[in-house]
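Table 4 source record.
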Amino acid sequence: MSAMTDNRLAFAEQEESDEFIRRHIGPSTEEQAVMLKALGYESLDALIDDAIPPKIRSKDPLALPPAQTESAVLQKLRQYANNNVLNRSLIGMGYYGTRVPAVIQRNILENPAWYTAYTPYQPEISQGRLEMLLNFQTMIADLTGLEIANASLLDEGTAAAEAMAFCQKASKNKGMVFFASENCHPQTIDVLKTRAEPIGVSVVVGNVNDGLPEDAFAVLLQYPDTYGAVADYATVVEKAHAQGALAVVAADLLALTQLTPPGEFGADVAIGTSQRFGVPLGFGGPHAAYFATKDEYKRSIPGRIVGVSVDRNGDKAYRLALQTREQHIRREKATSNICTAQVLLAVMAAAYACYHGPDGLRKIGRRVHRRTAILAQGLRDLGYKIAHDSFFDTILVETDDWTGSVVEAARIEGVNLRIFEDNKVGISLDETCTRELVERLWAMMAFDSMKELTYEEVSGRTPDALPEKLLRKSDFLTHPAFNTYHSETEMLRYLRRLADKDVALDRSMIPLGSCTMKLNATTEMIPVTWAAFSDIHPFAPRDQVEGYHQMISELERMLAEITGYAAVSLQPNAGSQGEYAGLLAIRAYHESRGDSGRNICLIPSSAHGTNPASAAMAGMKVVVVKCDENGNVDMEDLKAKAEQHSASLAALMVTYPSTHGVFEETITEICDLIHEHGGQVYMDGANLNAMVGVCKPGKFGSDVSHLNLHKTFCIPHGGGGPGVGPIGVGAHLAPFLPGHRTLGAPESAIGPVSAAPYGSAGILPISWSYIELMGANGLRSATEVAILSANYVARRLEEHYPVLYKGKKGLVAHECIIDLRPLKDATGVTVEDVAKRLMDYGFHAPTMSFPVAGTLMIEPTESEPLSELERFCEAMIAIRGEIREIEEGKLTHEESPLAFAPHTASDLLADDWDRKYSRERGAFPVKSLREAKYWPPVARIDQAYGDKNLICSCPPLEAYQDAAE
């Protein structure tokens, strides 16, 4: 073969490997040239040279492999998946096998209409996911017997930690002890201890029947407990209340279809996970935890709550209530840094409940219990002792001298049991467990007894193992939402109706500043539902998860190379948890050096609200640093405060590029200053999409960053979750990365910040695939085009709206802020008016009023083609024209389309159209909308009404009837 032929083949292969990059990056080479010309640059390199300060630029390309083809990446990932052993895991501990209904897997989990949606801060265009979240809240409240539930939390361990902080605030007992039953899941206790220590709370673990310490402000109970026992906790709860303490119950939702709910025996809070309601194991996540409490505590609930309000026409409409971005209001006084929810997983769990309905859930729960009881009876027949007489789905088997043989037999049979050191094994059944499996378990544990048992024979003489006193007598899930969609046809159409109400990335650009709504490529998503990734228990034996560890180790190395840090932990399962873990690592580092007095955290006034909340949770005191008129950190104020607090300075939290969308020139001086005073620099990675491949935070002064894999590295937002927020750290902080009881971490490691060792491991293949598909050059190109697109949008709009902040050479970073305050002063038009009017054009609004009230922060990302950028700019320019009509006196603000936006189909069909503009102008402000029109399902929502008349579960049908009348 000639050298020429070799070169042609190599060129062809290179072309194929670049195909994904061309598809991920929206603007073509020709479109990039058009945009550069508009900005006055001849090349992308020249633009980047002016946009990014030279002192932080990376001189060398990323040491990553070249881009791979989509087929090659899937093939390599399939090899990793094949290196996992897909055994039957009967380990329990809050993680169970479940059957994901195919209609839910295909139409929610694998459907971009659901997984590419954003957090529903714009409720008028989020009614579909808000309705399903309301179903989730109703499901949780009904099953737990409590009045109000939130729209989900991260996992059961962190939900317990949130309950601890909640109870400390709400309890009458002002002691500093949180008492946890020794029968709680061990990983939950570990997370509790991590979260308690920085805020001065002591977690005491013991036997709840021995009474609570006098200074205990709350008690945590597991129901059923980690060993499977079902206990009557009414007396324990009563005693807790007698000493002013609150009672938290970690309850299994499927068990609650059979057992008395916590609210009925006096619990103040119920927490847990909805994983077994149709959400795959995923090696530990992502899953939707739940949190329910009494109505009197509704204003203290952590996380998000969906409420019912009305729109301008008086029709029912859903919206986020009470806690919306609590951290941005309360900042360091917030008791939680959770700023979102596990929306996609909560939606799946709620859909599972709708699909099966109350009768279906009862049957599943009943079947699981009966098979567990029959298994236990058969094991008794074989000579084993079952530790508890009352249980739901988990039994503790005393195996004595047979323990080693049982464990080996289970290994040979491909079954994972929970193994205890005192010659016991735990066996947890789930809805996937069949009669045949029960008989297999008997056969593998028969040994010398030589008995041959049959399921039918043992079943006929096996009583239930649930205490009569604790059997559930109350109804649940009586609302029509849970009693209508039981056929696949009905469920399919219901999910389609809900999805059609929403705006997600599959419909249009979502230009949210600081949230980086970029392409979530189909190839990246495919491996998530492979059984060899999705059906793995987080505590499966290490030798069964080699494929996972290969992929995770590679991803850690790739992220370390991209960021310039020495080590990465993938455990934090949200950006907020990454912030918290990073600050804990800094705290542990100082303490290891004898600097336990370092507790001051400097935070610029422009910071994300989660920053001060995380610092407070990490036991630090927040000191706010001013920003100058350009949105940059005020260096004089920073110097003064660093000097003032020098002896006690723990850290500076800074976002880079800045929250205002600018590459601050002084970032290296900022880092040097903090280090001079003995502090560490925490760099918030929310805006990392502007740095990948062009500069590395770990190399220009930062000590630790969290990375939002659900932003920069393509894990989809899922309507507000899942997210992954790993941290990268310098070598000196590496010994303090989060540990876990399954990881063999060093003693210096901080405790776990999530229940599972790798947090939301089930979605890590997405980010691994993205990096492999893009390679070093593709990642750099993505960053450069993101910066190009943001500057192009800023240039297109600056003739019509002031662009608030720019860098030294008149450029923004990856996002720009346009200022609507002068227009409000002149016309009364608010930033909300513009956001709602954009819905009529088919767009989700940019980020509203953050970091500056009365502004819109726009981030186009690299994924949007020029045509979509132009469509958005034209919409914004057209809206400016509507504002100009108010300036010119042609219409008042109250008469304008902006005041009435968004316009629904019902508005246009009304008989009494008495507005000063035509119906056509209201709904079709530009001609292109006639080809593809999105109709907002509700008119503008009355937010105040919803908070004054709080309804956070599915309203009865009469409520809809009343609204209609």
